[in-house]
Specification:
By secondary structure, the protein is mostly beta strands. It has two helices and 14 strands; from the N terminus they run ββαββββαββββββββ. It has helices spanning 30-43, 94-106, and strands spanning 11-16, 19-23, 47-50, 56-65, 68-71, 76-79, 116-122, 128-131, 143-149, 152-156, 166-170, 175-178, 187-189, 204-210. It is globular and about 40 Å long. The termini are far apart. Bound molecules: succinic acid and fe (ii) ion. Residues 131, 133, 187 line the site of fe (ii) ion.
């Protein structure tokens, strides 16, 4: 399919203090990123995690890197092993790391050293409720979030759950980076609308790169 916007130059939009949207920043590498996602998922498959409260999350998740985000009976944690396979999470592909470092730099965060990458897969109607990314042992590093495939509406609020929400359409190739004053801002994804994307069919994929601050 001819994509008239394939060669569109990326641009930036300020989101909040410490937060920026790098529009289309991942477009040029999207195919390679998606191939690497498939490789990770062939080792540590996508699964719907169950929260400590017994709620099955609608988003399907896997991880790569030294640490991976997971749930267990007691809470949320960064584990060195995939609890489903009993093996370490797949290593973070060099392409992932290099991309995340470049995105962080473009957003004003030099020296980003991610050790965890959570991979989310959204099917139609899948959502991610409002939450803070607060399971990391350090809050000095930003979160780098990459959107691939179907568009979604991202909610971005403030430090309190009740703070007003901005609603932002995130499209294929968009990258959101938040750190500094907005590192703990509440955020979420509204239920995905049905659609077809030439690279991901009926899905949206999201990568979030994190520095856990936990030793190996
Ligand atoms: C997340 O908050 O972990 C993911 C956000 C997204 O899917 O864009
Ligand atoms: Fe999050």
């Amino acid at each position: 399919m001819l994509d008239l916007f394939a060669d569109e130059e990326p641009w930036q939009e300020a989101l909040a203090d410490g937060a920026v949207i790098l529009r289309r920043f991942a477009c040029a590498e999207a195919g390679e990123l998606l191939t690497a996602i498939s490789a990770v998922a062939s080792v540590s498959p996508f699964r719907q995690m169950v929260t400590p409260g017994g709620y099955t999350m609608s988003v399907a998740m896997t991880n790569c890197g030294a640490r991976g985000w997971a749930t267990d009976r007691h809470g949320y944690l960064y584990a060195t092993q995939d609890p489903q396979t009993g093996s370490p999470w797949p290593a973070m592909p060099a392409l992932f790391r290099a991309f995340a470092v470049r995105a962080a730099l473009a957003a004003g965060y030099p020296d980003f050293r991610p050790d965890a990458c959570l991979i989310n897969r959204y099917a139609p109607a899948t959502k991610l409720s409002l939450h803070q990314d607060k399971d990391e042992a350090t809050l000095l590093a930003p979160i780098v979030s990459v959107s691939l495939g179907l568009p979604a509406i991202f909610q971005f609020g403030g430090l309190r759950r009740n703070d007003p929400l901005k609603r932002i359409l995130l499209e294929h190739g968009d990258v959101v980076v938040w750190g500094g004053a907005s590192r703990l801002f509440y955020h979420g994804i509204q239920p995905l609308k049905e659609g077809h994307h030439p690279l991901t069919d009926a899905f949206r994929y999201n990568l979030t790169f994190r520095t856990t601050g936990l030793s190996e």
